[in-house]
Amino acid sequence: MFLESKPMSLCIADLGCSSGPNSLSNIKELVNAIERESSKLFERAPEFRVYLNDLPTNDFNTIFQALPDLYRELKKGRNHGSPSIYIAGYPGTFYGRLFPDKCLHFIYSSNSLHWLSRVPPGIYNEQGDSTNRKSIYISENSPPQVAQAYFEQFKQDFSLFLQSRSDEVVVGGRMVLILLGRNGPNYVDRGTAFLWEILYRSLAILVSKGEVEEEKLDSYEVHFYAPSKEELEDEIRKEGSFKLDRFEMFEIEKDTGNSSTSYGKAVAMTVRSIQESMISHHFGEAILDNLFEEYGRLVDEEMAKEDIRSISFVLVLQKS
Q1: Which residue among 148, 157, 310, 319 is least packed, with the fewest CB closer than 10 Å?
Q2: Which residues span the membrane (predicted)?
Q3: CA-CA distance, 264 to 87, in Å (whole number)?
Q4: Residue 67: in which H helix or E strand, if any?
Q5: 271 — phi, psi (to 5°)?
Q6: DSSP 97-142
Q7: CB of 20 closer than 8 Å to CB of 57
Q8: Helix or strand (DSSP H, E) at 312
């Protein structure tokens, strides 16, 4: 994208930036890549405008407090000093407009677009009760209208995402989107449904111990959807603003990087980091430690029986 347009001021947005160490390491990688290409051409690198986006509840202060370290890292080994980089936080949902017209050259979003804007209203009956009994996501026990409701919510959200970015990205700009997906048309994909099945079972154990009210469990649903390759391609084609340059699929590795940590515990820590605020809001904070201890144990038990792997998609889109 940079080599084609060579902007003097390059504008990058990270959508769903979170507040962990990757929030700023991604910026460093992108800046380094552009500076390498600029030096090959014996040209000066552009200035960088970086917009970090997440929901207003995200801990932006942690990111901002880490900025001096990033600036020091970027200055290392550069005789001409650190690159010109201007970083700002943009709180808000990416299911809608966030930025001014035609201001972005590059968008990066990792592990965010499988989260829906809301729990699909179509899963509730006229009395407001969930029809998805004994499940918190699409499962073998779910009635057909539950899967359809999740699919309709995904289509609505992803189409709005593409429309909003279409107004904000310059012609020729790129988006790199990474999200969990599923293989084939079956809504109940073992690689993703498994994670929510285990969470339901862990909550049910706490119900049996009297630590969680059964009514609370019956009313809990997740606003998540793992689309298929065909569903993503179809929405991109229908919206029409972006051309799909590349589509890759990869399995998530089981290596935890720590021999003392079981795979189940590692998965439990990951799911907890994502779901903690939602679970705390619905059930209260007191259950968290016991809940995810059960979760890790159940994951290890299931993985001993069969090898279950989630898949992720990488999409590279170009603004037409």
Answers
A1: 148
A2: none
A3: 37
A4: helix 67-75
A5: -65, -40
A6: --S-TT-EEEEEEES-TTB-SS--GGGB-TTS-BS-TT-SSS-TTS
A7: no
A8: strand 311-319
